[in-house]
């Protein structure tokens, strides 16, 4: 019985094998609480601090001429700025 497809539906991992139709497995039975990161106010504060430090580092490297506005993979400085400001709430 080879697996043809694996998909996810709300709360279920759906596995379709070559013999028979799809079978749903509850994710709660697979996922343990230990597998879910413990997000709390301290960890969110640390993430915000890290985003601010990355912002200062990138701005400094650009001002010193080490980096320009183009990054590998088609990213550019504006993308980085937009992501930091919009998604992470970093203020310049």
Description:
- This protein is α+β, with helices and mostly antiparallel strands and 92 residues long.
- It has two domains: 3-34, no CATH class; 41-87.
- It is built from three helices and three strands.
- The protein has helices spanning 27-30, 41-63, 77-87; strands at 3-9, 12-17, 22-26.
- Strands 1-2-3 form a three-stranded antiparallel beta sheet.
- Strand 1 and strand 2 (12-17) form a beta hairpin.
- The longest helix is centred in the middle third of the chain and has 23 residues, at 41-63.
- The radius of gyration is 22 Å and the shape is elongated.
Strand order of the largest sheet: 1-2-3
Overall geometric form: elongated
Number of helices: 3
Q: What is the H/E order?
A: EEEHHH
Strand content: 15-25%
How many domains in all? 2
- Category from helices, strands and their pairing: alpha+beta
Mean of the pLDDT scores?
76
Fraction of helical residues: 40-55%
C-alpha termini separation: 57 Å
Which sheet architecture does the biggest sheet show?
A: 3 strands, antiparallel
The residue ranges in which pLDDT falls below 50 over 5 or more consecutive positions are none
Q: Using only CA atoms, what is the Rg?
A: 22 Å
Tally the beta strands: 3
């Amino acid at each position: 019985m080879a697996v043809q497809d694996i998909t996810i539906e709300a709360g279920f991992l759906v596995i379709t094998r070559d013999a028979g139709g799809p079978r749903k497995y509850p994710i709660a039975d697979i996922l343990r609480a230990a597998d879910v990161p413990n997000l709390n106010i301290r960890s969110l504060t640390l993430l915000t601090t890290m985003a601010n430090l990355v912002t200062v580092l990138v701005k400094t490297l650009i001002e010193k001429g080490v980096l320009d506005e183009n990054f590998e993979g088609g990213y550019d400085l504006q993308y980085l700025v937009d992501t930091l400001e919009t998604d992470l709430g970093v203020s310049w």
